[in-house]
């Protein structure tokens, strides 16, 4: 059993929400709860701006703490969710309520690939953004703004955001990166992987290790099989282990990765 000092807040990334029956995090929340952890969900807009989502998360944190009676939370954030919660911590004063922030493939340093994409004719980007916003409103987003979200992934915006949102000395920050080997390793993200690899190098289907390093960088994880671990695998999209072979080196099931992360937080007193 895991005996954390503070509950866990899971903060999802873009493109999907934490629904009751089809969760963003797959088997991960139940596995954490089975080990004795108390788990809450961010529930912010999937394509809201960093600022609007940060405000939502700040309110959510107050609600959770008033309900559970804890003093602080341990936050685990995936992808853009890490930027949303960093804004809440640094710009909205939530640092006094957050003990630790563990980010999984969050674009803290921006993406060179997004720099190139955002240099395309603006009407193309705006058209894609409008279509995305319409779809995500149907899925429940209140304030989707895909164009602003796309901009937030550029290196220029990342530099500005990082300067305006410095880390709090009261919060422990750590980050994790993942990669997979070839475009054929994950057919859901083969095209994105190919594009990013041509521009920037090894990646998880969206982001390179350079883009996601922040705080105490815990390294690059590729898993126990030759295929590696994709951006979708990081949140257990397939709801199954990577391999059933016993004695394999590396991560055989993404659920185990999160359990180990939380055990380490427990040892550190969080």
Can you walk me through this structure?
The chain has 270 residues and is of the alpha/beta class. Helix content is 39%, strand content 12%. It contains ten helices and six strands; from the N terminus they run E-H-E-H-E-H-E-H-H-H-H-E-H-H-E-H. It has helices spanning 28-34, 50-68, 81-91, 112-117, 122-138, 146-152, 155-164, 190-199, 209-212, 254-267; strands at 8-11, 39-41, 73-78, 98-104, 172-178, 216-221. A six-stranded parallel sheet has the order 2-1-3-4-5-6, with helices on both faces. Helix 1 (28-34) links the parallel strand 1 (8-11) and strand 2 (39-41). Helix 2 crosses helix 3 (81-91). It is globular.
Query: Which structural class is indicated by helix and strand composition?
Result: alpha/beta
Radius of gyration: 18 Å
Mean of pLDDT:
94
Q: Major sheet, described briefly?
A: 6 strands, parallel
So what's the overall shape?
globular
Q: How far apart, in Å, are the first and last alpha carbons? A: 15 Å
Q: What percentage of residues falls in helices of 4 or more residues? A: 25-40%
Determine the strand fraction and express it as a percent band: 5-15%
Q: Main sheet: which strands, in order across?
A: 2-1-3-4-5-6
Order of helices and strands: EHEHEHEHHHHEHHEH
Q: Can you count the beta strands?
A: 6
Give me some keywords for this one.
270 residues, alpha/beta, 6-stranded parallel beta sheet, 6 strands, 10 helices
Question: What is the gist of this entry?
Answer:
The chain has helices spanning 28-34, 50-68, 81-91, 112-117, 122-138, 146-152, 155-164, 190-199, 209-212, 254-267, and strands at 8-11, 39-41, 73-78, 98-104, 172-178, 216-221. It is an alpha/beta fold and 270 residues long.
């Amino acid at each position: 059993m895991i005996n954390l000092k503070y509950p866990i807040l899971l903060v999802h990334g873009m493109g999907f929400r934490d629904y009751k029956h089809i969760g963003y995090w797959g088997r991960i929340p139940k596995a954490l709860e089975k080990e004795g952890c108390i788990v809450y969900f961010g529930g912010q807009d999937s394509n809201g701006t960093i600022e609007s989502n940060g405000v939502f998360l700040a309110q959510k944190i107050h609600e959770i703490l008033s309900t559970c009676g804890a003093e602080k939370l341990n936050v685990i954030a995936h992808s853009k969710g890490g930027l949303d919660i960093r804004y809440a911590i640094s710009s909205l004063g939530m640092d006094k309520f957050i003990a630790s922030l563990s980010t999984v493939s969050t674009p803290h340093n921006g993406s060179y690939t997004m720099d190139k994409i955002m240099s395309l004719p603006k009407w193309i980007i705006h058209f894609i953004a409008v279509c995305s916003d319409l779809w995500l409103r149907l899925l429940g987003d209140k304030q989707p703004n895909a164009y602003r979200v796309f901009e937030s992934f550029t290196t220029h915006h990342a530099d500005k955001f990082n300067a305006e949102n410095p880390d709090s000395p009261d919060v422990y920050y750590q980050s994790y990166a993942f990669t997979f080997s070839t475009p054929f390793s994950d057919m859901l993200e083969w095209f994105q992987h190919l594009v990013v690899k041509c521009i920037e190098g090894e990646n998880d289907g969206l982001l390179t290790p350079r883009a996601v390093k922040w705080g105490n960088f815990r390294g690059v994880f590729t898993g126990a099989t030759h295929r590696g671990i994709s951006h979708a695998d990081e949140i257990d999209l397939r709801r199954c282990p990577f391999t059933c072979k016993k004695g394999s080196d590396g991560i055989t099931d993404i659920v185990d990765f999160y359990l180990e992360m939380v055990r380490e937080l427990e040892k550190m007193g969080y």
